[in-house]
Design brief:
8 strands, mainly alpha, three-stranded antiparallel beta sheet, about 350 residues
Length: about 350
């Protein structure tokens, strides 16, 4: 089958599963689902993953064109409003991905505008970034790679000042988190006397960390107001991070943590990386075809070996703690659906 055929069928399955999930979870947000029963563990406010559930519902609304699906997506997005003033850099994940696919929806557009202003106000000018924050407990002054994707786009939506903040936020994380050979150190903590110190968790072998950082850089390359901050650096970093996912020996679906060679896979990391590669493939350059081919190959592997009745299984929430290590993850479903939607032409991947 051509990519449009297998991708279209898989996309329909994932979005049908989203409709069933919506019925099961009601007004709560799905987090991860048991691989045997399909039953979801849910949260009341959505935690850092709530935007992916809203985004998945917007994808379904685009796919079906149904007014009820659109109303459900809009209602879910509205429930994300409490996160606008929350002290967390994951506002990027929540409020960018929860609104980016909403098209002309007025409520989503207004929410994104408010969120961009709040994110800009949260920038720590001395540290040069929006701190990880205190919303989920633990140290506040952290720099984590999962606080970069979404945040770059959200800040950049705040006009020239927001674009400068987006560039600062991204480059400070690259300064800290990008090691040699594309190796990523996912988290750092700042202390007044000691400065920045690397955190032990998540480990440098965390595959989702590499995927998140690649996605953030790919986002920046599609935003001229951010890209012009350091074009040569961002292009080189994108190539370096992409090489981790495209080199001949790289697995299509990685281990959740390379430091646990007998541990679980993480299909969600593969789905995130595939979306990032699709974004890079839309940029001029000799590697565009390679990135497009690799992204499609990753997505085809996910569909062929890990998708069951619309559920993307073998996602790993937390390998070290043994939490949901072979489950369906809401963000895994979202990024798989987004990649498939790009392959079928349902969305322009540059806009999300």
């Amino acid at each position: 089958m051509t990519p449009a055929n297998w991708a279209g069928r898989a996309l329909a399955d994932v979005l049908d599963r989203a409709a069933a999930t919506r019925t099961e979870t009601g007004g709560r947000f799905p987090l991860y689902a048991d691989p045997d029963t399909g039953r979801w563990t849910t949260t009341g406010r959505g935690t850092w993953t709530g935007g992916f559930w809203a985004g998945l519902l917007w994808l379904r609304a685009r796919h079906t064109g149904d007014a009820q699906d659109r109303a459900a997506a809009a209602a879910c997005t509205e429930r994300l409003a409490d996160w606008v003033e929350a002290d967390t850099a994951t506002r990027g994940l929540i409020l960018w991905y929860g609104t980016a696919l909403a098209g002309a929806d007025t409520g989503a557009r207004e929410l994104r505008t408010r969120a961009a202003r709040a994110a800009l106000a949260a920038l720590d000018s001395e540290l040069g970034l929006v701190p990880w924050g205190s919303a989920f407990g633990g140290p506040r002054l952290l720099a984590r790679v999962d606080g970069v994707p979404g945040m770059v786009a959200l800040l950049a939506a705040g006009g020239p000042e927001g674009a400068r903040a987006a560039a600062s936020h991204l480059h400070r994380h690259l300064d800290l988190c990008l090691g040699g050979g594309g190796r990523v150190v996912p988290a750092w903590e700042f202390a007044a006397e000691a400065g920045w110190q690397a955190c032990e968790e998540p480990s440098a072998g965390w595959s989702r960390g590499s995927a998140w950082l690649l996605l953030a850089v790919a986002d920046a390359l599609h935003r001229p107001e951010v890209f012009r901050s350091a074009p040569d650096r961002l292009e080189a970093v994108a190539e370096r991070l992409a090489d981790v996912w495209t080199r001949p020996c790289a697995p299509l679906v990685p281990l959740a943590d390379e430091t646990l060679p007998a541990g679980p896979l993480d299909t969600s990391a593969a789905a995130i990386a595939a979306v990032a590669l699709l974004k890079l493939a839309r940029l001029p350059g000799c590697r565009a075809a390679q990135y497009a081919y690799r992204a499609a190959t990753i997505l085809e592997r996910l569909v062929g070996e890990h998708l069951t009745r619309g559920m993307l299984l073998d996602g790993c929430y937390d390998a070290g703690k043994g939490v949901a290590v072979r489950h369906e993850l809401v963000w895994g479903d979202f990024f798989l659906a987004l990649g498939l939607a790009a392959l079928t032409g349902l969305v322009d991947i540059r806009d999300v």
